[in-house]
Amino acid sequence: MADTLVVYYSLEGNVDFLAREIADEMKADLLRLETEKEYPKKGLVKFFHGGKDAISNARPKLKTAIPDLSGYSTIVIGTPVWAGKPAAPINTFLAGKNFSEKKVAVFASSAGGAAEKTFSAIADASSASLFATQSFKNPLTNETSSKEIARMFARKVRGL
């Protein structure tokens, strides 16, 4: 078991791409959150359901088993930005957790602007003081640049 866990939710593959790069660079364990009921991946229905759940701080049931987190000193959380907030499966993961004694870093992927509100929501929900954050815009449209930024973020989290 590594001392770092990269935990993430990805609907369209952007966050998955980033999480794998970050975990690889950090030699970290990787945990992809999957919901029991999948979110739509196309059209207005995708935005309606995802945005509604994000705004209402919904906690969809996960089919992913959450391991014992006590052995991890660093938790890196990855999420798409939905309506300015973390994706709802991240809410489920964070429910009842207190990461005040852990190093917590967050990265987010969006089609638009910055992710500061998303970072704040995760910090509040996890009782953590985030020591590193990174926002990505459509990372799969420029994989080479996104990969380099993801690896730089991972090195920052590791303290290199």
Estimated structural class: alpha/beta
Number of helices: 5
C-alpha geometry: globular
Average pLDDT, rounded to a whole number, is 91
Helix and strand element order: EHEHEEHEHEH
First-residue to last-residue Cα separation: 21 Å
The name of the CATH topology is Rossmann fold
- Could you give me the name of the CATH homologous superfamily? Flavodoxin domain
GO molecular function, one term: FMN binding
InterPro entries: Flavodoxin/NO_synth (IPR008254), Flavoprotein-like_sf (IPR029039)
Pfam families: Flavodoxin_4
Protein name: Flavodoxin
What key phrases describe this protein's structure?
160 residues, alpha/beta, Rossmann fold, 6-stranded mixed beta sheet, 5 helices, 38% helix, globular, Flavodoxin/NO_synth
Describe the structure concisely.
The chain is α/β, with parallel strands linked by helices and 160 residues long.
Task: Give your account of this protein's structure.
The chain has helices at residues 14-26, 43-55, 88-94, 116-126, 143-158, and strands at 4-8, 29-32, 74-82, 85-86, 103-110, 130-137. By secondary structure, it is α/β, with parallel strands linked by helices. The radius of gyration is 14 Å and the shape is globular. The mean pLDDT is 91. Pfam families: Flavodoxin_4. This is Flavodoxin. It comes from Treponema saccharophilum DSM 2985.
